[in-house]
Design goal:
alpha+beta, Beta Polymerase, domain 2, 2 domains, five-stranded mixed sheet, about 55% helix, about 10% strand
Length: about 230
């Protein structure tokens, strides 16, 4: 079975991410598609295991195998967690809807560390661009601000919101380079401070509900094996 076949025939959930999901799309924005597929259980009984992720087959399309997706989400990976909260869902079968119903089980106070670590990595890249070219990549600066806003609000409320809402005009002004870098830096610093303060009183649980998610994965693997059995 080719990787593209897994995406075509076994996708349980697919959504649009990127600027279109964040409410930051412009006329030249790409359509970034993300998805989750379930590799048939029988494929794991061979020496060569199915892939953990697949690029394509559409442009700007990327999909994870369910187990890998859950592993990353349990670690608080921002890109993966955001997929579960996209307002632009293109496909969700019964298993995909069950995954969506479990999305709160992935959230915990660990997101402060993971989101902060990711944000610091992005900030280092912006600083490198600034040193090399005299200016940051404004689009990347916009998305870092968006990430920090999302992290702060998630820690404050215990709920993940993807669309930037009323922050859209200000963020797009950053993308166009209309906000001085000093002002962008000040905004980033303030958001990071607010996220840290929120982390001390967040309603999020200490840890994600790993047992509940593991039970879900076990059921999916078991059903896949039973459905592939002779006479089924």
């Amino acid at each position: 079975m080719q990787p593209e076949d897994l995406v075509r025939d076994h996708t349980i959930y697919a959504c649009v991410m990127g600027s279109r999901a964040f409410g930051l799309a412009t006329q030249d924005s790409d359509t970034d598609r993300r998805g989750v597929f379930v590799a048939p259980t029988a494929l794991y009984w061979r020496f060569e295991k199915p892939p953990t992720h697949v690029d394509g087959p559409l442009p700007e399309q990327f999909s994870w195998e369910l187990e890998r997706f859950c592993e990353l989400a349990l670690r608080g990976n921002p890109n993966v967690l955001e997929c579960l909260h996209s307002p632009l869902v293109e496909h969700a079968d019964a298993t995909g809807r069950e995954l969506l119903a479990l999305r709160e089980a992935f959230l915990s106070r660990q997101v402060y560390e993971t989101f902060t670590r990711y944000a610091l990595g992005q900030r280092r890249k912006l600083d490198a661009d600034l040193r090399a070219h005299g200016a940051p990549r404004w689009k990347h600066a916009m998305h870092l601000l968006r990430l920090l806003i999302g992290a702060r609000d998630l820690l404050r409320t215990g709920r993940m919101t993807i669309d930037v809402g009323d922050e859209r005009p200000r963020l797009l002004a950053v993308r166009r380079g209309e906000v001085p870098w000093a002002g962008v830096e000040s905004w980033m610093t303030r958001l990071a401070t607010e996220a840290e303060e929120a982390s001390h009183r967040t309603p999020l649980p200490e840890l994600p509900d790993r047992r509940r998610l593991e039970d879900f994965l076990h059921r999916v693997r078991r059903d896949s094996a039973l459905n592939a059995a002779p006479g089924r």
